[in-house]
Amino acid sequence: MAAGQPAISVDTKKKELVGDFKNPGRELRPKGQPEPVRVHDFELPGLGKVAPYGVYDLAANAGWVSVGVDADTAAFAVESIRRWWQQLGQVRYPKAKQLVITADCGGSNGARVRLWKRELQRFADECGLTVTVAHLPPGTSKWNRIEHRLFAAISQNWRGKPLVSHQVIVQLIGATTTQTGLTVRCELDANSYPKGIKVTDAEMVALAIERDAFHGEWNYTISPHQQSP
Questions:
Q1: Where is the composition biased (Basic and acidic residues) (predicted)?
Q2: Adjacent-strand bridge partners of 53
Q3: How far, CA to CA in Å, does 92 sit from each of 7, 62, 174?
């Protein structure tokens, strides 16, 4: 950050049911006019669930959230990072040569997920950035900055409001702000991300990945195969 290079914190927020379901919290409404919600939380056909994947820019205090409607896979996670870079990152950091990512040790961006590393290699090849990933050790995911800098603010902003549609979810996330200057950009990702994709040993060998000297199982750097001009 001191060198002007981008550093981001990433994670998937808790999946949310889409529909007129109860959303914890209190919201000001006219007396005697509570908003009706369903008693049961069965998934509604045609609406399903959403998986909000967040990218938090540590230096800019700005967030990006891709609201996915399909599976929360490593391909979806890297696509969210790609969209952040294309829409916000490369404009904010035009001279960037390196990207640092802090992430949890499990989930779609887990340290042992092969698809996560393969997709990051593709992203590095596309943008010409050297991508350094630092995974938080197991049991320390709440230390990830995105949890209390972005996700907590989103939960506070939509408290008490039923998430009745994809449009409402995107608007509520995009309207999230804090007194410290947080801004959030949100978009719906309607792409499909199939589960069960296998990454072969040959594909792993082809990755330009270097393990860090300090806990290389959690910290590593992926370099682009060909430096961009």
A1: 11-37
A2: 12, 66
A3: 12, 11, 19
In this predicted structure, which of 30-39, 68-77, 150-159, 183-192 has the lowest mean pLDDT?
A: 30-39
* Nearest to 76, CA basis, from 158, 221, 188, 223: 188
Return the half-sphere exposure (C-beta side, CA atoms, 13 A cut-off) of residue 77. Answer: 26
Q: Are 177 and 63 in contact (CB under 8 A)?
A: no
- Judge contact between 35 and 163, C-beta under 8 A: no
- pTM of this structure: 0.93
Q: How far is residue 72 CA from its own chain's centroid?
A: 10
Reported as a pLDDT band with limits 50, 70 and 90, residue 130 is very high
Residue 10's φ and ψ, nearest 5 degrees, are: -130, 155
- pLDDT in the model for residue 212: 96
- Token duo for residue 70: 């399909």
Backbone angles phi and psi of 36, in degrees to 5: -70, 140
Give me the domains of the chain, ranges plus CATH numbers: 7-19+46-222 (3.30.420.10)
3-state secondary structure 74-124: HHHHHHHHHHHHHHHHHHHCCCCCEEEEEECCCHHHCCCCHHHHHHHHHHH
Distance CA 33, CA 19 (A): 19
How, if at all, do strands 183-189 and 62-68 pair? parallel
CA 178 to chain centre: 19
Answer whether residue 186 shows pLDDT above 90.
Answer: yes
Q: Which residues pair with 65 in a beta bridge?
A: 54, 186
